[in-house]
TrEMBL record:
Signal peptide: none annotated. It catalyses: RX + glutathione = an S-substituted glutathione + a halide anion + H(+). The keyword rRNA-binding does not apply. GO terms for cellular component: cytoplasm. It comes from the Eukaryota. This is glutathione transferase. Residues 86-208 form the GST C-terminal domain. It is an enzyme of class 2 (transferase). The keyword Ribosomal protein does not apply. Keywords: Transferase.
Protein backbone atom coordinates (compact mmCIF):
# COMPACT_ATOMS: atom_id res chain seq x y z
CA UNK A 1 0.00 0.00 0.00
CA UNK A 2 1.18 3.51 -0.80
CA UNK A 3 2.62 5.32 2.14
CA UNK A 4 1.87 9.02 2.58
CA UNK A 5 3.47 11.29 5.14
CA UNK A 6 3.07 15.01 5.58
CA UNK A 7 5.67 17.14 7.32
CA UNK A 8 3.98 20.27 8.58
CA UNK A 9 2.82 22.63 11.27
CA UNK A 10 -0.88 22.93 12.08
CA UNK A 11 -1.26 26.69 11.76
CA UNK A 12 0.27 27.09 8.32
CA UNK A 13 -1.90 28.14 5.37
CA UNK A 14 0.48 26.30 3.05
CA UNK A 15 0.29 23.05 4.99
CA UNK A 16 -3.50 23.42 5.25
CA UNK A 17 -3.72 23.43 1.44
CA UNK A 18 -2.20 19.97 1.38
CA UNK A 19 -4.36 18.63 4.23
CA UNK A 20 -7.47 19.76 2.33
CA UNK A 21 -6.32 18.11 -0.89
CA UNK A 22 -5.65 14.84 0.96
CA UNK A 23 -9.09 15.02 2.58
CA UNK A 24 -10.84 15.76 -0.70
CA UNK A 25 -9.25 12.61 -2.12
CA UNK A 26 -9.86 10.58 1.03
CA UNK A 27 -6.19 9.66 1.50
CA UNK A 28 -4.90 8.25 4.76
CA UNK A 29 -1.63 9.86 5.83
CA UNK A 30 0.66 10.33 8.76
CA UNK A 31 1.16 13.91 9.98
CA UNK A 32 4.69 14.61 11.22
CA UNK A 33 4.60 17.77 13.30
CA UNK A 34 7.65 19.98 12.77
CA UNK A 35 9.14 22.47 15.17
CA UNK A 36 10.24 25.29 12.88
CA UNK A 37 12.55 26.60 15.59
CA UNK A 38 14.38 23.26 15.56
CA UNK A 39 13.77 21.53 12.25
CA UNK A 40 13.92 17.75 12.02
CA UNK A 41 16.63 15.81 10.21
CA UNK A 42 13.87 14.55 7.95
CA UNK A 43 12.81 18.04 6.90
CA UNK A 44 16.39 19.11 6.22
CA UNK A 45 17.00 15.94 4.27
CA UNK A 46 13.87 16.22 2.14
CA UNK A 47 13.82 20.00 1.62
CA UNK A 48 17.44 21.18 1.94
CA UNK A 49 16.82 24.09 -0.42
CA UNK A 50 13.99 25.94 1.28
CA UNK A 51 13.73 24.02 4.56
CA UNK A 52 10.02 24.84 4.61
CA UNK A 53 6.85 22.88 5.26
CA UNK A 54 4.75 21.37 3.79
CA UNK A 55 6.70 18.40 2.48
CA UNK A 56 4.69 15.46 1.21
CA UNK A 57 6.49 12.14 1.28
CA UNK A 58 4.95 9.52 -0.98
CA UNK A 59 6.65 6.11 -0.99
CA UNK A 60 9.82 7.74 0.37
CA UNK A 61 9.86 10.40 -2.36
CA UNK A 62 9.55 14.05 -1.27
CA UNK A 63 7.30 16.50 -3.12
CA UNK A 64 7.84 20.17 -2.31
CA UNK A 65 5.90 23.44 -2.49
CA UNK A 66 2.25 23.44 -1.45
CA UNK A 67 0.69 24.18 -4.85
CA UNK A 68 2.86 21.59 -6.57
CA UNK A 69 1.95 19.07 -3.87
CA UNK A 70 -1.77 19.72 -4.39
CA UNK A 71 -1.34 19.16 -8.15
CA UNK A 72 0.59 15.97 -7.45
CA UNK A 73 -2.13 14.67 -5.14
CA UNK A 74 -4.71 15.47 -7.80
CA UNK A 75 -2.78 13.56 -10.46
CA UNK A 76 -1.81 10.53 -8.41
CA UNK A 77 -4.95 9.72 -6.44
CA UNK A 78 -8.42 8.83 -7.68
CA UNK A 79 -11.51 10.72 -6.69
CA UNK A 80 -12.97 14.09 -7.54
CA UNK A 81 -10.65 16.35 -9.51
CA UNK A 82 -9.19 19.35 -7.75
CA UNK A 83 -7.93 21.14 -10.85
CA UNK A 84 -10.37 21.83 -13.67
CA UNK A 85 -10.43 19.17 -16.42
CA UNK A 86 -10.26 21.53 -19.36
CA UNK A 87 -6.69 22.68 -20.26
CA UNK A 88 -7.49 26.37 -20.57
CA UNK A 89 -9.32 26.37 -17.24
CA UNK A 90 -6.40 24.46 -15.71
CA UNK A 91 -4.01 27.10 -17.01
CA UNK A 92 -6.15 29.85 -15.53
CA UNK A 93 -6.35 28.14 -12.14
CA UNK A 94 -2.56 27.79 -12.12
CA UNK A 95 -2.08 31.40 -13.22
CA UNK A 96 -4.26 32.79 -10.44
CA UNK A 97 -2.83 30.52 -7.75
CA UNK A 98 0.65 31.69 -8.71
CA UNK A 99 -0.63 35.26 -8.61
CA UNK A 100 -1.81 34.64 -5.05
CA UNK A 101 1.59 33.40 -3.91
CA UNK A 102 3.68 35.88 -5.91
CA UNK A 103 1.61 39.01 -5.45
CA UNK A 104 -1.03 38.73 -2.77
CA UNK A 105 0.96 36.82 -0.15
CA UNK A 106 3.99 39.07 -0.57
CA UNK A 107 2.09 42.35 -0.50
CA UNK A 108 -0.01 41.28 2.50
CA UNK A 109 3.19 40.23 4.29
CA UNK A 110 4.63 43.66 3.57
CA UNK A 111 1.50 45.35 4.90
CA UNK A 112 1.35 43.22 8.05
CA UNK A 113 4.91 42.45 9.02
CA UNK A 114 6.88 45.62 8.25
CA UNK A 115 7.40 48.41 10.69
CA UNK A 116 8.57 50.96 8.19
CA UNK A 117 5.61 53.28 7.57
CA UNK A 118 6.35 53.84 3.88
CA UNK A 119 6.90 50.15 3.14
CA UNK A 120 3.73 49.26 5.01
CA UNK A 121 1.65 51.79 3.08
CA UNK A 122 3.08 50.37 -0.12
CA UNK A 123 2.15 46.88 1.03
CA UNK A 124 -1.42 47.98 1.74
CA UNK A 125 -1.75 49.65 -1.64
CA UNK A 126 -0.33 46.63 -3.47
CA UNK A 127 -2.61 44.28 -1.52
CA UNK A 128 -5.70 46.28 -2.46
CA UNK A 129 -4.68 46.39 -6.09
CA UNK A 130 -3.97 42.67 -6.23
CA UNK A 131 -7.20 41.69 -4.43
CA UNK A 132 -9.18 43.79 -6.91
CA UNK A 133 -7.98 41.56 -9.76
CA UNK A 134 -9.27 38.50 -7.92
CA UNK A 135 -12.55 40.23 -7.07
CA UNK A 136 -13.06 40.94 -10.76
CA UNK A 137 -12.22 37.36 -11.70
CA UNK A 138 -14.76 35.75 -9.35
CA UNK A 139 -17.87 34.83 -11.33
CA UNK A 140 -19.22 31.78 -9.49
CA UNK A 141 -19.91 30.66 -5.90
CA UNK A 142 -16.40 29.22 -5.68
CA UNK A 143 -13.49 29.80 -8.03
CA UNK A 144 -13.95 26.11 -8.89
CA UNK A 145 -17.63 26.71 -9.80
CA UNK A 146 -20.31 25.15 -7.57
CA UNK A 147 -17.68 23.12 -5.77
CA UNK A 148 -14.31 24.07 -4.29
CA UNK A 149 -11.25 23.55 -6.48
CA UNK A 150 -7.57 24.31 -6.84
CA UNK A 151 -7.85 28.09 -6.74
CA UNK A 152 -10.14 28.05 -3.71
CA UNK A 153 -7.57 25.95 -1.88
CA UNK A 154 -4.80 28.33 -2.95
CA UNK A 155 -6.82 31.38 -1.92
CA UNK A 156 -7.88 30.07 1.49
CA UNK A 157 -5.09 32.17 2.95
CA UNK A 158 -7.14 35.25 1.98
CA UNK A 159 -10.37 33.90 3.45
CA UNK A 160 -8.99 32.76 6.79
CA UNK A 161 -5.52 34.09 7.55
CA UNK A 162 -5.82 37.64 6.21
CA UNK A 163 -8.76 38.47 8.54
CA UNK A 164 -6.66 37.18 11.43
CA UNK A 165 -3.77 39.44 10.41
CA UNK A 166 -6.24 42.31 10.24
CA UNK A 167 -7.59 41.64 13.67
CA UNK A 168 -4.08 41.62 15.11
CA UNK A 169 -2.89 44.78 13.33
CA UNK A 170 -6.11 46.76 12.94
CA UNK A 171 -5.45 47.00 9.20
CA UNK A 172 -8.51 47.14 6.92
CA UNK A 173 -7.50 45.57 3.65
CA UNK A 174 -9.88 42.72 2.90
CA UNK A 175 -13.33 44.00 3.87
CA UNK A 176 -16.87 43.29 2.67
CA UNK A 177 -17.20 46.92 1.57
CA UNK A 178 -14.10 46.89 -0.60
CA UNK A 179 -14.46 43.36 -1.94
CA UNK A 180 -18.12 42.24 -1.68
CA UNK A 181 -17.84 39.21 -3.96
CA UNK A 182 -14.58 37.94 -2.47
CA UNK A 183 -15.97 38.50 1.00
CA UNK A 184 -19.05 36.37 0.26
CA UNK A 185 -16.83 33.75 -1.28
CA UNK A 186 -14.64 33.74 1.83
CA UNK A 187 -17.65 33.09 4.07
CA UNK A 188 -18.87 30.24 1.85
CA UNK A 189 -15.38 28.78 1.80
CA UNK A 190 -14.62 28.82 5.51
CA UNK A 191 -18.03 27.30 6.20
CA UNK A 192 -17.62 24.52 3.64
CA UNK A 193 -17.71 21.29 5.71
CA UNK A 194 -14.29 19.96 4.67
CA UNK A 195 -12.62 23.34 5.05
CA UNK A 196 -14.31 24.07 8.35
CA UNK A 197 -13.15 20.84 9.97
CA UNK A 198 -9.60 21.39 8.68
CA UNK A 199 -8.92 25.01 9.62
CA UNK A 200 -6.62 25.45 12.59
CA UNK A 201 -8.40 27.07 15.58
CA UNK A 202 -8.50 30.84 15.41
CA UNK A 203 -7.50 31.82 18.96
CA UNK A 204 -4.03 30.25 19.02
CA UNK A 205 -3.33 31.73 15.59
CA UNK A 206 -4.34 35.17 16.83
CA UNK A 207 -2.02 34.78 19.79
CA UNK A 208 0.81 33.48 17.60
CA UNK A 209 0.68 36.36 15.14
CA UNK A 210 0.15 38.90 17.89
CA UNK A 211 3.37 37.70 19.52
CA UNK A 212 5.16 37.72 16.20
CA UNK A 213 4.14 41.29 15.43
CA UNK A 214 5.01 42.47 18.94
CA UNK A 215 8.34 40.71 18.50
CA UNK A 216 8.98 42.82 15.41
CA UNK A 217 8.72 46.10 17.25
CA UNK A 218 10.61 44.73 20.26
CA UNK A 219 13.58 43.72 18.12
CA UNK A 220 13.68 47.04 16.28
N1 LIG B 1 6.05 28.51 -1.02
C1 LIG B 1 6.03 27.59 0.09
C2 LIG B 1 5.85 28.35 1.37
C3 LIG B 1 5.93 27.47 2.59
C4 LIG B 1 6.23 28.26 3.86
O1 LIG B 1 6.45 29.47 3.85
N2 LIG B 1 6.21 27.54 4.98
C5 LIG B 1 6.56 28.12 6.27
C6 LIG B 1 5.54 27.79 7.32
S1 LIG B 1 4.04 28.67 7.04
C7 LIG B 1 7.89 27.52 6.74
O2 LIG B 1 8.12 26.34 6.62
N3 LIG B 1 8.75 28.37 7.32
C8 LIG B 1 9.97 27.91 7.90
C9 LIG B 1 11.12 28.76 7.51
O3 LIG B 1 10.97 29.60 6.60
O4 LIG B 1 12.19 28.60 8.10
C10 LIG B 1 4.89 26.59 -0.12
O5 LIG B 1 3.89 26.97 -0.75
O6 LIG B 1 5.00 25.44 0.31
C1 LIG C 1 16.21 19.92 18.58
O1 LIG C 1 15.60 18.66 18.36
C2 LIG C 1 16.42 17.55 18.58
C3 LIG C 1 15.72 16.31 18.09
O2 LIG C 1 14.38 16.27 18.51
C4 LIG C 1 16.78 17.51 20.07
O3 LIG C 1 17.60 16.41 20.36
C5 LIG C 1 17.48 18.81 20.42
O4 LIG C 1 17.76 18.84 21.81
C6 LIG C 1 16.67 20.01 20.02
N1 LIG C 1 17.45 21.23 20.18
C7 LIG C 1 17.01 22.29 20.85
C8 LIG C 1 17.95 23.46 20.89
O5 LIG C 1 15.92 22.32 21.37
C1 LIG D 1 -23.32 38.57 -0.55
O1 LIG D 1 -24.15 37.77 0.22
C2 LIG D 1 -25.28 38.45 0.72
C3 LIG D 1 -26.01 37.52 1.68
O2 LIG D 1 -26.09 36.23 1.17
C4 LIG D 1 -26.14 38.92 -0.45
O3 LIG D 1 -27.25 39.61 0.01
C5 LIG D 1 -25.31 39.82 -1.37
O4 LIG D 1 -26.04 40.17 -2.52
C6 LIG D 1 -24.02 39.12 -1.77
N1 LIG D 1 -23.19 40.09 -2.46
C7 LIG D 1 -22.53 39.80 -3.57
C8 LIG D 1 -21.71 40.90 -4.15
O5 LIG D 1 -22.55 38.71 -4.09
Amino acid sequence: MAEVKLLGVRGSPFVTRVVIALKLKGIEYEFLEENLGNKSELLLKYNPIHKTVPVLVHNEKPILESLIIVEYIDEVFNGNSILPKEPYQRALARFWSKFIDDKIVSSVKKAVFTLDEVEREKGIEESLEALQFLEDDLKTKFFGGDEIGFLDIAALIIAYWVPIFQEVTGLQIFTSEKFPKLYNWSQELINHPIIKETLPPREPLLAFFKARIEGLSASK
